[in-house]
Protein backbone atom coordinates (compact mmCIF):
# COMPACT_ATOMS: atom_id res chain seq x y z
CA UNK A 1 0.00 0.00 0.00
CA UNK A 2 1.36 3.43 -0.94
CA UNK A 3 1.80 6.19 1.63
CA UNK A 4 -1.01 8.17 -0.03
CA UNK A 5 -3.43 5.21 0.15
CA UNK A 6 -2.50 4.57 3.79
CA UNK A 7 -3.01 8.22 4.61
CA UNK A 8 -6.45 8.20 2.95
CA UNK A 9 -7.51 5.06 4.84
CA UNK A 10 -6.40 6.51 8.16
CA UNK A 11 -8.25 9.77 7.47
CA UNK A 12 -11.45 7.89 6.67
CA UNK A 13 -11.24 5.82 9.87
CA UNK A 14 -10.47 8.89 11.96
CA UNK A 15 -13.33 10.93 10.51
CA UNK A 16 -15.73 8.04 11.17
CA UNK A 17 -14.61 7.76 14.82
CA UNK A 18 -14.82 11.51 15.33
CA UNK A 19 -18.31 11.80 13.87
CA UNK A 20 -19.57 8.97 16.08
CA UNK A 21 -17.85 10.55 19.10
CA UNK A 22 -19.36 13.98 18.34
CA UNK A 23 -22.85 12.52 17.98
CA UNK A 24 -22.51 10.53 21.22
CA UNK A 25 -21.19 13.49 23.19
CA UNK A 26 -23.93 15.78 21.97
CA UNK A 27 -26.63 13.18 22.66
CA UNK A 28 -25.46 12.41 26.20
CA UNK A 29 -23.83 15.61 27.45
CA UNK A 30 -25.34 18.53 25.53
CA UNK A 31 -26.69 19.89 28.86
CA UNK A 32 -23.09 20.39 30.07
CA UNK A 33 -20.97 23.15 28.51
CA UNK A 34 -17.86 20.96 28.43
CA UNK A 35 -19.86 18.24 26.67
CA UNK A 36 -21.12 20.64 23.99
CA UNK A 37 -17.64 22.00 23.42
CA UNK A 38 -16.23 18.46 23.26
CA UNK A 39 -18.76 17.61 20.54
CA UNK A 40 -17.83 20.77 18.63
CA UNK A 41 -14.14 19.95 19.04
CA UNK A 42 -14.72 16.44 17.65
CA UNK A 43 -16.48 17.92 14.60
CA UNK A 44 -13.69 20.42 14.04
CA UNK A 45 -11.15 17.62 14.39
CA UNK A 46 -13.02 15.71 11.66
CA UNK A 47 -12.63 18.77 9.43
CA UNK A 48 -8.92 18.76 10.26
CA UNK A 49 -8.62 15.06 9.39
CA UNK A 50 -10.15 15.79 5.98
CA UNK A 51 -8.01 18.82 5.13
CA UNK A 52 -4.55 18.57 6.72
CA UNK A 53 -1.62 18.45 4.31
CA UNK A 54 2.00 18.29 5.45
CA UNK A 55 4.47 20.45 3.59
CA UNK A 56 4.10 23.62 1.55
CA UNK A 57 0.44 23.66 0.53
CA UNK A 58 -0.62 23.28 -3.10
CA UNK A 59 -3.14 25.72 -4.57
CA UNK A 60 -6.24 25.61 -2.37
CA UNK A 61 -9.58 25.13 -4.14
CA UNK A 62 -12.06 27.80 -3.05
CA UNK A 63 -14.62 25.18 -1.97
CA UNK A 64 -12.08 23.73 0.46
CA UNK A 65 -11.19 27.02 2.14
CA UNK A 66 -14.19 27.11 4.56
CA UNK A 67 -13.42 23.57 5.75
CA UNK A 68 -9.79 24.54 6.40
CA UNK A 69 -10.99 27.66 8.24
CA UNK A 70 -13.26 25.47 10.40
CA UNK A 71 -10.31 23.18 11.10
CA UNK A 72 -8.10 26.11 12.13
CA UNK A 73 -10.80 27.67 14.31
CA UNK A 74 -11.05 24.34 16.10
CA UNK A 75 -7.92 25.20 18.08
CA UNK A 76 -9.95 27.95 19.79
CA UNK A 77 -12.67 25.39 20.55
CA UNK A 78 -9.97 23.16 22.09
CA UNK A 79 -8.81 26.00 24.33
CA UNK A 80 -12.39 26.76 25.41
CA UNK A 81 -13.03 23.05 25.97
CA UNK A 82 -10.11 22.83 28.41
CA UNK A 83 -11.41 25.86 30.27
CA UNK A 84 -14.91 24.42 30.60
CA UNK A 85 -13.56 20.98 31.52
CA UNK A 86 -11.46 22.20 34.44
CA UNK A 87 -13.38 25.28 35.61
CA UNK A 88 -17.05 24.67 36.41
CA UNK A 89 -17.65 28.41 36.77
CA UNK A 90 -16.52 29.09 33.20
CA UNK A 91 -19.18 30.50 30.86
CA UNK A 92 -19.01 31.29 27.17
CA UNK A 93 -18.99 35.01 26.36
CA UNK A 94 -19.35 36.97 23.15
CA UNK A 95 -15.61 37.63 23.17
CA UNK A 96 -14.96 33.89 22.87
CA UNK A 97 -17.09 33.75 19.72
CA UNK A 98 -15.21 36.79 18.42
CA UNK A 99 -11.85 35.06 19.00
CA UNK A 100 -13.03 31.94 17.17
CA UNK A 101 -14.38 34.07 14.30
CA UNK A 102 -11.13 36.03 14.05
CA UNK A 103 -8.99 32.88 13.85
CA UNK A 104 -11.32 31.20 11.33
CA UNK A 105 -11.46 34.39 9.24
CA UNK A 106 -7.68 34.71 9.30
CA UNK A 107 -7.41 31.15 8.04
CA UNK A 108 -10.06 31.74 5.38
CA UNK A 109 -8.27 34.84 4.11
CA UNK A 110 -4.99 32.90 3.98
CA UNK A 111 -6.63 30.06 2.04
CA UNK A 112 -8.28 32.49 -0.38
CA UNK A 113 -4.95 34.20 -0.87
CA UNK A 114 -3.26 30.87 -1.60
CA UNK A 115 -6.01 29.95 -4.05
CA UNK A 116 -5.52 33.22 -5.92
CA UNK A 117 -1.71 33.35 -5.70
CA UNK A 118 -0.36 29.89 -4.85
CA UNK A 119 3.22 30.78 -5.55
CA UNK A 120 3.43 33.90 -3.44
CA UNK A 121 3.75 33.85 0.33
CA UNK A 122 2.49 30.28 0.77
CA UNK A 123 5.21 29.38 3.24
CA UNK A 124 4.73 32.55 5.28
CA UNK A 125 0.99 31.91 5.44
CA UNK A 126 1.59 28.35 6.63
CA UNK A 127 4.02 29.51 9.33
CA UNK A 128 1.63 32.17 10.66
CA UNK A 129 -1.28 29.72 10.94
CA UNK A 130 0.75 27.07 12.74
CA UNK A 131 2.34 29.54 15.16
CA UNK A 132 -1.20 30.63 16.03
CA UNK A 133 -2.15 26.99 16.64
CA UNK A 134 0.87 26.46 18.90
CA UNK A 135 -0.08 29.55 20.90
CA UNK A 136 -3.58 28.26 21.66
CA UNK A 137 -2.21 24.82 22.52
CA UNK A 138 0.08 26.51 25.06
CA UNK A 139 -2.92 28.35 26.56
CA UNK A 140 -4.84 25.07 26.82
CA UNK A 141 -1.98 23.32 28.59
CA UNK A 142 -1.54 26.22 31.03
CA UNK A 143 -5.27 26.03 31.84
CA UNK A 144 -5.07 22.26 32.29
CA UNK A 145 -2.22 22.20 34.76
CA UNK A 146 -3.23 25.38 36.61
CA UNK A 147 -6.63 23.94 37.58
CA UNK A 148 -5.95 20.21 37.59
CA UNK A 149 -5.21 19.97 41.31
CA UNK A 150 -8.65 21.35 42.26
CA UNK A 151 -10.41 18.29 40.79
CA UNK A 152 -11.16 15.87 43.61
CA UNK A 153 -12.19 12.84 41.51
CA UNK A 154 -9.02 10.81 40.89
CA UNK A 155 -10.16 8.87 37.81
CA UNK A 156 -11.56 11.99 36.22
CA UNK A 157 -8.37 13.93 36.91
CA UNK A 158 -6.29 11.34 35.10
CA UNK A 159 -8.61 11.03 32.12
CA UNK A 160 -9.02 14.79 31.76
CA UNK A 161 -5.29 15.33 31.69
CA UNK A 162 -4.82 12.43 29.28
CA UNK A 163 -7.41 13.84 26.87
CA UNK A 164 -5.95 17.34 26.92
CA UNK A 165 -2.29 16.31 26.78
CA UNK A 166 -2.86 13.75 24.02
CA UNK A 167 -4.75 16.27 21.90
CA UNK A 168 -2.16 18.97 22.60
CA UNK A 169 0.77 16.70 21.73
CA UNK A 170 -0.85 15.75 18.45
CA UNK A 171 -1.68 19.36 17.63
CA UNK A 172 1.84 20.47 18.51
CA UNK A 173 3.48 17.73 16.45
CA UNK A 174 1.19 18.44 13.52
CA UNK A 175 2.12 22.13 13.63
CA UNK A 176 5.84 21.31 13.86
CA UNK A 177 5.59 18.95 10.87
CA UNK A 178 3.89 21.68 8.87
CA UNK A 179 6.69 24.08 9.76
CA UNK A 180 9.65 21.74 9.15
CA UNK A 181 8.71 19.38 6.31
CA UNK A 182 8.95 21.24 2.98
CA UNK A 183 7.24 18.77 0.64
CA UNK A 184 7.96 15.90 -1.75
CA UNK A 185 8.32 12.29 -0.65
CA UNK A 186 9.14 13.32 2.92
CA UNK A 187 5.79 15.11 3.11
CA UNK A 188 3.96 11.94 1.99
CA UNK A 189 5.65 9.92 4.72
CA UNK A 190 4.96 12.66 7.30
CA UNK A 191 1.29 12.82 6.27
CA UNK A 192 0.89 9.04 6.69
CA UNK A 193 2.64 9.17 10.09
CA UNK A 194 0.50 12.15 11.08
CA UNK A 195 -2.64 10.27 10.09
CA UNK A 196 -1.59 7.22 12.09
CA UNK A 197 -0.91 9.37 15.15
CA UNK A 198 -4.25 11.18 14.86
CA UNK A 199 -6.14 7.89 14.49
CA UNK A 200 -4.29 6.50 17.52
CA UNK A 201 -5.01 9.57 19.66
CA UNK A 202 -8.71 9.56 18.78
CA UNK A 203 -9.00 5.82 19.43
CA UNK A 204 -7.17 6.15 22.77
CA UNK A 205 -9.45 8.99 23.88
CA UNK A 206 -12.53 6.95 22.97
CA UNK A 207 -11.24 3.94 24.93
CA UNK A 208 -10.32 6.11 27.94
CA UNK A 209 -13.80 7.62 28.02
CA UNK A 210 -15.40 4.19 27.78
CA UNK A 211 -13.29 2.87 30.68
CA UNK A 212 -13.95 5.75 33.06
CA UNK A 213 -17.32 6.84 31.74
CA UNK A 214 -18.29 10.08 30.06
CA UNK A 215 -20.51 10.96 33.02
CA UNK A 216 -17.40 11.19 35.22
CA UNK A 217 -15.47 13.30 32.72
CA UNK A 218 -18.27 15.73 31.87
CA UNK A 219 -20.25 15.73 35.09
CA UNK A 220 -20.95 19.26 36.24
CA UNK A 221 -19.80 19.99 39.76
CA UNK A 222 -22.75 20.47 42.11
CA UNK A 223 -23.44 23.85 43.60
CA UNK A 224 -22.25 24.30 47.15
CA UNK A 225 -25.78 23.94 48.46
CA UNK A 226 -26.22 20.66 46.54
CA UNK A 227 -23.13 18.90 47.84
CA UNK A 228 -24.27 15.86 49.80
CA UNK A 229 -22.07 13.76 52.07
CA UNK A 230 -21.87 10.03 51.58
CA UNK A 231 -22.11 7.46 54.32
CA UNK A 232 -19.18 7.11 56.71
CA UNK A 233 -17.14 3.94 56.42
CA UNK A 234 -14.87 4.15 59.44
CA UNK A 235 -13.97 5.90 62.65
CA UNK A 236 -10.66 7.14 61.18
CA UNK A 237 -12.46 8.97 58.40
CA UNK A 238 -14.96 10.47 60.82
CA UNK A 239 -12.11 11.82 62.94
CA UNK A 240 -10.47 13.33 59.87
CA UNK A 241 -13.73 14.95 58.78
CA UNK A 242 -14.15 16.40 62.27
CA UNK A 243 -10.59 17.72 62.24
CA UNK A 244 -11.10 19.24 58.79
CA UNK A 245 -14.32 20.95 59.80
CA UNK A 246 -12.64 22.33 62.92
CA UNK A 247 -9.99 23.89 60.69
CA UNK A 248 -12.78 25.47 58.69
CA UNK A 249 -14.92 26.61 61.62
CA UNK A 250 -12.31 27.55 64.22
CA UNK A 251 -9.24 28.61 62.25
CA UNK A 252 -11.23 29.69 59.19
CA UNK A 253 -8.39 28.45 57.05
CA UNK A 254 -10.40 29.21 53.92
CA UNK A 255 -9.58 32.88 54.58
CA UNK A 256 -5.86 32.31 54.07
CA UNK A 257 -4.13 33.39 50.87
CA UNK A 258 -3.28 30.63 48.39
CA UNK A 259 -4.70 27.82 50.49
CA UNK A 260 -4.29 24.56 48.54
CA UNK A 261 -5.29 20.98 49.07
CA UNK A 262 -1.60 20.25 49.68
CA UNK A 263 -1.27 22.81 52.47
CA UNK A 264 -4.49 21.59 54.04
CA UNK A 265 -3.28 17.99 53.92
CA UNK A 266 -0.05 19.05 55.62
CA UNK A 267 -2.01 20.66 58.46
CA UNK A 268 -3.96 17.43 58.92
CA UNK A 269 -0.78 15.31 58.60
CA UNK A 270 -2.26 13.08 55.90
CA UNK A 271 -1.33 12.44 52.25
CA UNK A 272 -2.91 14.75 49.70
CA UNK A 273 -4.66 11.90 47.89
CA UNK A 274 -6.41 10.89 51.12
CA UNK A 275 -7.71 14.39 51.78
CA UNK A 276 -8.85 14.62 48.17
CA UNK A 277 -10.78 11.36 48.56
CA UNK A 278 -12.17 12.46 51.94
CA UNK A 279 -13.63 15.72 50.64
CA UNK A 280 -15.01 13.98 47.57
CA UNK A 281 -16.44 10.81 49.09
CA UNK A 282 -17.39 11.97 52.60
CA UNK A 283 -18.45 15.56 52.00
CA UNK A 284 -19.77 15.19 48.45
CA UNK A 285 -17.63 17.77 46.66
CA UNK A 286 -15.97 17.18 43.29
CA UNK A 287 -13.95 20.40 43.23
CA UNK A 288 -11.71 21.80 45.96
CA UNK A 289 -12.42 25.42 45.05
CA UNK A 290 -16.17 24.82 45.40
CA UNK A 291 -15.51 23.33 48.84
CA UNK A 292 -13.57 26.43 49.93
CA UNK A 293 -16.06 28.84 48.39
CA UNK A 294 -18.93 27.17 50.23
CA UNK A 295 -17.36 28.16 53.56
CA UNK A 296 -16.44 31.62 52.30
CA UNK A 297 -19.96 32.29 51.06
CA UNK A 298 -21.53 31.06 54.31
CA UNK A 299 -19.40 33.57 56.22
CA UNK A 300 -20.28 36.31 53.74
CA UNK A 301 -24.01 35.53 54.02
CA UNK A 302 -23.83 35.87 57.79
CA UNK A 303 -22.00 39.20 57.50
CA UNK A 304 -24.43 40.55 54.88
CA UNK A 305 -27.40 39.66 57.10
CA UNK A 306 -25.84 41.24 60.21
CA UNK A 307 -27.30 44.71 61.03
CA UNK A 308 -24.10 45.56 62.90
CA UNK A 309 -22.19 45.29 59.59
CA UNK A 310 -24.64 47.31 57.50
CA UNK A 311 -22.01 49.94 56.76
CA UNK A 312 -19.32 47.42 55.77
CA UNK A 313 -18.85 47.35 51.99
CA UNK A 314 -19.50 44.19 49.98
CA UNK A 315 -15.89 44.05 48.78
CA UNK A 316 -14.61 44.20 52.38
CA UNK A 317 -16.89 41.32 53.35
CA UNK A 318 -15.76 39.36 50.31
CA UNK A 319 -12.07 39.82 51.02
CA UNK A 320 -12.50 39.11 54.73
CA UNK A 321 -14.08 35.80 53.75
CA UNK A 322 -11.10 34.85 51.61
CA UNK A 323 -11.97 36.02 48.09
CA UNK A 324 -9.16 37.80 46.26
CA UNK A 325 -11.43 40.19 44.32
CA UNK A 326 -15.05 41.22 43.93
CA UNK A 327 -15.76 39.59 40.55
CA UNK A 328 -15.23 35.93 41.55
CA UNK A 329 -17.11 36.57 44.81
CA UNK A 330 -20.15 38.00 43.02
CA UNK A 331 -20.22 35.09 40.56
CA UNK A 332 -19.83 32.42 43.24
CA UNK A 333 -22.36 34.10 45.53
CA UNK A 334 -25.01 34.36 42.82
CA UNK A 335 -24.38 30.78 41.68
CA UNK A 336 -25.03 29.61 45.26
CA UNK A 337 -27.88 31.88 46.36
CA UNK A 338 -29.45 32.98 43.07
CA UNK A 339 -29.04 36.67 43.92
CA UNK A 340 -26.19 39.17 44.10
CA UNK A 341 -24.68 40.07 47.49
CA UNK A 342 -26.37 43.50 47.39
CA UNK A 343 -29.76 41.92 46.64
CA UNK A 344 -29.21 39.38 49.42
CA UNK A 345 -28.52 42.17 51.89
CA UNK A 346 -31.58 44.14 50.72
CA UNK A 347 -33.84 41.09 51.02
CA UNK A 348 -32.89 40.84 54.69
CA UNK A 349 -33.77 44.45 55.32
CA UNK A 350 -30.18 45.57 55.85
CA UNK A 351 -29.67 49.10 54.55
CA UNK A 352 -26.11 50.03 53.65
Question: Please, could you describe this protein's structure?
Answer:
This protein starts with a helix and ends in a 5-residue tail after the last helix. Helix 4 (94-116) runs antiparallel to helix 5 and helix 5 runs antiparallel to helix 6 (154-180). With 352 residues, the protein is mainly alpha-helical. The protein has 15 helices and no strands. It is elongated and about 75 Å long. It has helices spanning 3-29, 33-51, 65-86, 94-116, 122-147, 154-180, 185-212, 214-218, 235-251, 261-268, 272-281, 288-304, 314-320, 326-337, 341-347.
Summarize the structure.
With 352 residues, this protein is mainly alpha-helical. 72% of the residues lie in helices and 0% in strands.
Notable characteristics:
352 residues; mainly alpha; 15 helices
Query: H/E order of the elements?
Result: HHHHHHHHHHHHHHH
Any low-confidence stretches, pLDDT <50, length ≥5?
Answer: 221-229
What kind of assembly state do the chains in view correspond to?
A: single chain
Biggest sheet overview? none
User: Can you give the helix content as a percent range?
Assistant: over 70%
What distance separates the N and C termini? 78 Å
Q: What proportion strand?
A: under 5%
Structural class: mainly alpha
Mean pLDDT: 81
Could you give the count of β-strands? 0
Mind telling me the C-alpha Rg? 25 Å
Q: What form results from the Cα inertia axes?
A: elongated
Determine the number of helices (DSSP H or I, runs of at least 4 residues): 15
Amino acid sequence: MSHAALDLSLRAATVAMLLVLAATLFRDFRHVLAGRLAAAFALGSAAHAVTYAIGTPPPVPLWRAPIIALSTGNIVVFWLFTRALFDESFRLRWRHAAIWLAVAAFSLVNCTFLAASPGSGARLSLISINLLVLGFIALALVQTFASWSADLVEDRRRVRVFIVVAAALYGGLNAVLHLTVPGGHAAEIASAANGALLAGVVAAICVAMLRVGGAEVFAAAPAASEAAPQADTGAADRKLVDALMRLMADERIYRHDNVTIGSLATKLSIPEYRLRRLINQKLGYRNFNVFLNNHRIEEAKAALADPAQAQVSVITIAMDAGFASLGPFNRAFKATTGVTPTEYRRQRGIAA
